[in-house]
Design brief:
One of its GO terms (molecular function) is kinase activity. Keywords: Coiled coil, Kinase, Receptor, Transferase. This is Receptor-interacting protein kinase-like protein. InterPro entries: DEATH-like_dom_sf, Death_dom. Pfam families: Death (PF00531). This protein has nine helices and five strands, in the order αβββββαααααααα. Strand 4 and strand 5 form a beta hairpin. Strands 1-2-3 form a three-stranded antiparallel beta sheet, with no helix packed on it. It is an alpha+beta fold and 227 residues long. 52% of the residues lie in helices and 13% in strands. It starts with a helix and ends in a 5-residue tail after the last helix. Among the domains are: 55 residues, no CATH class; 95 residues, Death Domain, Fas, CATH 1.10.533.10.
Length: 227
């Protein structure tokens, strides 16, 4: 027998053996799936619910659990939960996954919350007699008073403060349009100056101080004025 014919016979034998193994595997698969095929042909409504095993609904979202310095990620799968454990040391802020889950060190978070809710410091206590004198003062305002108020008290609530002084919104807006490029301090000064010119006899220290006390602590206000 020639070498070529012998090689051909050997190849055919190998192929035949492989086919037998494939057929055996297919029979085993058919036997294993026979109960499932029978079940699919039944009407599931005919099966009592008590005879079926109960399974809790499983979320497809991964669960992230932390314990000490370890982070465990559990992902529900078809045949149970699969999990991955990651050990992270000396880290406070960790970002995981597409959902941007942020795990923040609890102690620093508590410190931050405590700092955020801390009340602002109280102004220095002013003698009650000085407060009384300022709030009762009939001294007419000077430019130095207007400058002081514009510098010390006109911030985020400058519009509200000017309304309490006695200016109308249209008057405030007019000065704003004229001086907005110079900043809030200059706008406030021009508004107070306009109010003083419009009310030369009533533009007193007490009037302005009482308006400021509606927004700021009386001790803080009266400490800045001369009666």
């Amino acid at each position: 027998m020639s070498n070529s014919r012998k090689k051909k016979n050997d190849t055919e034998a190998v192929v035949a053996e492989a086919m037998r193994e494939v057929n055996m595997a297919m029979r085993e698969v058919a036997q294993a799936t026979a109960p499932l095929r029978k079940m699919s042909n039944k009407n599931l409504h005919d099966i009592e619910s008590d005879s079926l095993p109960y399974h809790e609904p499983v979320s497809s979202e991964p669960k992230i659990e932390t314990k000490g310095g370890a982070i465990q990620i559990k992902k529900p799968g078809l045949f149970g939960n699969s999990s991955t454990t990651i050990n992270i040391q000396s880290a406070q802020n960790i970002q995981i996954g597409n959902n941007n889950t942020m795990i923040i060190n609890s102690s620093s978070s508590r410190r931050m919350r405590t700092r955020d809710i801390s009340p602002p410091p109280k102004p220095a206590k002013v003698d009650k007699e000085i407060v009384r004198q300022v709030l009762a003062s009939t001294r007419l305002l000077e430019d130095t008073d207007l400058n002081m108020v514009s510098s010390k008290f006109m911030g985020k609530q400058w519009r509200r403060t000017l309304r309490l002084v006695g200016l109308e919104d249209i008057e405030i807006e007019s000065k704003y349009q004229d001086y907005y490029s110079n900043g809030i301090k200059e706008i406030s000064y021009q508004c107070l100056k306009y109010w003083k010119q419009k009310n030369p006899d009533t533009a007193t220290v007490s009037h302005l101080a009482k308006a400021l006390c509606e927004v700021f602590h009386p001790d803080e206000v009266c400490d800045k004025f001369k009666p």
